[in-house]
Request: fold
Amino acid sequence: MNKISIVLMFILLSAYMDAAAQQGACCVELDCVGTMTEEECLILGGNWFENEDCDAGFDCESTYPCGHYIIGDFNGNGAFNIADIVAAFSKLRTGSPDAALLCECPPGSGNIWAVAFDLNGSCNFNLADVILACSRRLIPEIPFYPCPQCPPAPQSP
Ligand SMILES: [Ca+2]
Ligand SMILES: [Ca+2]
Reply:
């Protein structure tokens, strides 16, 4: 091995060590459990956010878009209307389109689904939700219930 390749290896190795030592915030479920390397965070089963710091008040909940939706808003345009019902029904019948917001719910469960279109609080999306949405078009008083484990955040005024 000549000198150049030894130097090159050293540069590559130090770059690798730098990358490995990069610190970030580690969110396990929605708790910021510490500031560490990506590898350490993965061992804990967390999600890692480069250059963020738990001690500086990094908010894991802000990384979870599933708290920010309007119930019934399948297509993600910010309101519930007939287009959402059509899209949701089409998804059940033909497999598309996907909901605008697909969320892992409960957080950390690995179960990713159309959380905004769970209207009966059953924590899944199926024909019962579409039927409830149709009923609501006819009788506006019919309430929607979000999945209790992944409710939408209160709307800011
Ligand atoms: Ca909509
Ligand atoms: Ca449901």
